[in-house]
Design a protein that fits this description.
Blueprint (H helix, E strand, L loop, with lengths): L2 E5 L5 E5 L4 H10 L5 E6 L23 H11 L9 E5 L7 E8 L4 H17 L4 E9 L3 H4 L16 E9 L5 H17 L21 H4 L3 H14 L18
Antiparallel strand pairs: 1-2, 1-3, 4-6, 5-7, 6-7
C-alpha cells in the first residue's frame, strides 16, 4: 500500500502516505481499524509470476501420519520457498462460529502437535452433534515481509510469524462453553511454551480478544504501543473505533 484515504472520528477525511500524515500511514499498516474507516487505498502492483497461474494441491492424512507431516513442513519451511504456502486444516462437519484462539510459532513442536490433535479428536468425538472443533495452520513465505525494517509499519512480527496457528470451537448452545474454552486455552498455552518465541505473538485478525494482552497483537517493544496510543488520543479520543482489538482501556474526556 502506498496511500490511503481515511475517514476519521471527527468526520474529516485525510490522505496518508510516506509524503503526508506519515504517523497515520505508519499506524494503519498493522493497527488501522483503531483509527478510522478506509475509503480508498492505492497499492503498488507487480507483474504476476508464472503468467498468473497457480496450483492448489490437497492431501488428506490420517492422524497416525502426524509426526511425518509436521517434520516435512518444518523441513520445507526453513526457509519457506517464495513460491509456496502450506495450510494444515482439521475440520469436522457441525456447528460453526464460536471461541477462537491463536499463536505464532517458529517451528512446529511435534510432541505438542501430537498432544493437541489427540485432544482435538477426543473433543470432536465426545461432543459430536453439540460442538465442532476446527483448526487451521498457515505457513507463508516471509521474504517480502522481512524485506522491510521492523519499525517500518505498526505490524510487529516481521521476524516473528513463521507459522500462524488457529483453533476454534463452534457449538449449538452454551451448555459446555467453559469446557470448550478451557480446552482451547490450555492448548494455546502449550503452543506458546513450545513456540520458540518465549511469549504469545499473533496476527491481529486471529487474536482471541479477551485473554490476550495488546502486546501480543501490537508488539512488546514499549515504544510501539506508546506511539499508537499517542496517535489514538489525537485522532479518536472518545474511542469510536474501539470495537475490535483495542489497545486502550480508557481515554481522557
Amino acid at each position: 500500500m502506498v496511500a490511503i484515504r481515511l475517514l476519521l472520528a471527527n468526520g474529516t477525511i485525510v490522505t496518508a502516505s510516506e509524503e503526508e500524515n506519515r504517523d497515520i500511514f505508519w499506524a494503519v499498516r498493522g493497527a488501522g481499524h483503531n483509527f478510522g474507516i478506509a475509503l480508498e487505498a492505492t497499492f503498488q502492483v507487480y507483474p504476476q509470476e508464472n503468467n498468473g497461474e497457480h496450483y492448489v494441491v490437497d492431501f488428506e492424512y490420517d492422524l497416525d501420519r502426524l509426526e511425518d507431516l509436521f517434520k516435512i513442513v518444518n523441513d520445507v519451511s526453513s526457509p519457506m520457498p517464495k513460491e509456496l504456502a502450506i495450510f494444515v486444516i482439521g475440520r469436522k462437519r457441525g456447528a460453526t462460529g464460536g471461541n477462537f484462539y491463536a499463536a505464532n510459532v517458529k517451528q512446529y513442536d511435534i510432541p505438542t502437535m501430537r498432544a493437541f490433535f489427540d485432544g482435538w479428536k477426543q473433543m470432536n468425538e465426545k461432543y459430536e452433534g453439540h460442538a465442532m472443533f476446527s483448526v487451521m495452520f498457515e505457513s507463508f513465505p516471509q521474504q517480502g515481509v522481512r524485506a522491510k525494517k521492523d519499525d517500518a509499519t505498526a505490524y510487529p512480527w516481521r521476524q516473528g510469524s513463521d507459522h500462524f496457528l488457529m483453533m476454534e470451537a463452534g457449538s449449538k448452545d452454551h451448555t459446555n462453553a467453559e469446557i470448550y474454552d478451557d480446552f482451547l486455552s490450555q492448548h494455546q498455552d502449550a503452543w506458546i511454551k513450545s513456540s520458540g518465541y518465549g511469549r504469545l505473538q499473533q496476527y491481529i485478525n486471529y487474536g482471541h480478544g479477551s485473554k490476550d494482552p495488546p502486546e501480543a497483537l501490537y508488539g512488546y517493544e514499549p515504544w510501539r504501543l506508546e506511539r499508537l496510543r499517542t496517535l489514538k488520543e489525537e485522532l479518536d479520543p472518545e474511542g469510536w473505533f474501539n470495537a475490535y482489538q483495542p489497545f486502550v482501556e480508557y481515554l481522557s474526556a
